[in-house]
Amino acid sequence: MRLRALGLIALVALAGCDTPRSEAATPIACASGKIAGQGSSAQANAVSAWIRNYQVSCADATVEYASVGSGAGLTAFIAGTGDFAGTDSPLSAEDQPKANARCGAGPAIHLPMVVGPIALAFNVAGVDSLRLAPDTIARIFTGRITSWNDQEIRRDNPGVSLPATPIRTVHRADSSGTTDNFTKFLAATAPADWPHGSGSAWKAPGGTAQKGSNRVVSAIERSDGAIGYVEASYARFHNLPIASVGNAAGKYVTLSDAAAGSMVSGAKITGTAGDLQLAIDYKTVSTDAYPLVLVTYEVVCKAGAPGLVKSFLTYASSRTGQSAATRLGYAPLPDALRDQVAQAVAAL
Amino acid sequence: MPAVIEATRTIARRAVRPETPARLRLWATLTVLTAVALLVSLSLLMARVQQQVRIIGDEAAPQAATAADLYFALSDMDAQVARMVLTADRDELAGSQIDALGTYQERSRQVDADVQKALSAESDHDRVLELMGHLATYRERVWQTLTAGDAAAGYYTQATNVLHLDLLPAAKDLRDSSTERLSQAYARKSATEGWAVTVAVGLGAALLILLVALQVWLARRFRRVFSPALLTATALTVALIIPAVAVLTLQASRLSEARDDSLTPFLALSRARAISYDAAADTSRFLISDNLAYYDDDFKRKSTCLAAGGSCGPTADEIEGGLPSVVGGPDVSPFDRDQVLTRWQAYRTDHERIVGLARGGKEEEAVGALTGIRRGDASFDFAYFDAAVADITAARSTEFDQALSDAKLVLTGWPWIPVAVLGLVIFLVPLAVRRRFAEYR
């Protein structure tokens, strides 16, 4: 018996010399209470995953999020019925003072929480890899290029054999942050070919309109020759090929978390004093940046926000939170930006 | 023939002549021979035990874990398909649907990886090939279900039938055969250990007796009490035998503790977890199939067997003692165990509420209560229950891995230690008696 004990002591001593196993994910620092947020549907999946994980770990907390769209979310926040708002575009110049007034003790700030790359998913016979320059994309979506073996597409894809299938574009019928960011990209990088400006509602003529990303991706899957813009998660989970997009540095970049992160890293922070609004610069990008990205923010009061909001956002901006979002097809915030967001949350 | 017998008798007589050189030679030879026997047998047996520990750790235990994981992944795969069918045409549930699709793909990859690992066991080849055939049929049914629109329910019945009547029984067979192999591996190791300890103690004691007797005889015959070489040899022998026996007993007890306290509870909990996933999917199946009582009954059966043990259905698995005994144990605090039971009870209440809503015609509300992530919604409450179970499962798996690496650590180098130590002894004995022989030249 004593021998066994001695032996075990020896074992434990030896085991202490072993290399330490990797640390488990940092546990969530819980707060209690109940908060409600509303807004962007582009981030709804990520927020749902965060809510579920947070509530599982924290028995006394309840978080709710209603996916009513960025506009309605900001309106509810300004009216005081929401503790935070999810939005794909920052508050407009008229709304910022109203939001500041709602917050009282301090301004309302924007915290980027997750990046949603936008994929150009396509369905073309014999083609699983495609490169498209911004002006080609603009011409496709305005209906000037009508066939897959058009010379412009062939110019972008030397050596690829393209069939003569007619192009069928698919766009969103409903108001969406994805449309907003896609049209912003086109307006900035191909203004000559894209005269429709930017906005959450699709203005170009032609193509098929579908309500919701689910239906867009089904429409692409069903139609030979279809191409549409949709959140990367939908294209990835439906196993659709995604086009590599030409960026302002002249490179065609394949969609990946790192490439999307690189694009967001290059964005300038236009907010001050803890407000981390980003202005994405489509014209000055690094060679490995994928330009079609959507950054989604949480709008919160800098001072006076409930402790649960701070705790919840601390989890969302942590590495564990970011990887929970990545599992659902989002791209995580690039490390430098993530640290800034974490600091801003800590200062709430 | 008589000449050979004569010759043998002569040699033997000469060996046991009472004259001193002959006696000396006899003692020395016997001692060296015993040492050689001990060296060879202990070394070989230690090597065999080491190999058997490796087999347990690198083959038998992982195979058992893979088979348990396969059963679990199959159960969840079908649960996700049910979720996809349920959320198919509802815009407000698009997020839930994409999550189900992602999880289905993850489980599908997990199933493929497990099937590939299962192929590494030769004796399971046929079972695995059969399972792969059923898997192909299942995937075809799932494809039909997901593209059938309104006719999804009919195709889904086919899919879930293939899963429950063909796939899960095949996975259960694999699981049973791998558990059997694990038991056999442990039994074989136990037998080898027994032999090793016997040899170490038996031949070791014989060697010690011979060494001590040799020294005593030398002391009496030559009046030299102190022989450093022989004393060293004796000390070395003791220093070998005691640790050898200790090492063998230590790793045996560590590994069998690991099996009883970590591996077996881990496998049992994995089975219970798979059943809980399947039972939770019954809520979705009930709604998809237009409130078919069969799925409500199936849920009740599975829920009862989870709560109290027993058989979970005519084609389903069985759990001994239910969740209380499978989750409980020396490694789980009573609080954690009660959390698991309470959370399962909460899910059960949710299921009953949803069934009530559906039967009362409030289908939209029922679906909302099923897919929501608020506390009190079935989807959240199940995730809450599963998080508790997952923590315990992970802890047990880590415990077993730790025990295994401890056992391997303890056995490191032992096939060679007897060679080194006894080699030295074999060298020292003739050295010690050489001087005494010199007196007779």
Automatic annotation (TrEMBL), chain A:
Record: residues binding phosphate: 40-42, 70, 88, 176-178
GO BP: phosphate ion transmembrane transport
Organism superkingdom: Bacteria
Gene3D superfamilies in UniProt: Periplasmic binding protein-like II (3.40.190.10)
Domain PBP: 25-318
InterPro entries membership: ABC_phos-bd_PstS, PBP_domain, Phosphate-bind_PstS
GO cellular component terms attached to this protein's record: ATP-binding cassette (ABC) transporter complex
GO molecular function: phosphate ion binding
Keyword vocabulary terms for this entry: Phosphate transport, Transport
Pfam family, one: PBP_like_2
Recorded family membership: Belongs to the PstS family.
Name of protein: Phosphate-binding protein
Organism encoding this protein: Paractinoplanes tereljensis
Source organism phylogeny: Bacteria, Bacillati, Actinomycetota, Actinomycetes, Micromonosporales
Automatic annotation (TrEMBL), chain B:
Organism domain of life: Bacteria
Native source species: Paractinoplanes tereljensis
Protein name: Secreted protein
Upper taxonomic lineage: Bacteria, Bacillati, Actinomycetota, Actinomycetes, Micromonosporales
TM spans (from-to): 24-46, 195-218, 230-250, 413-433
Keywords linked to the UniProt accession: Membrane, Transmembrane, Transmembrane helix
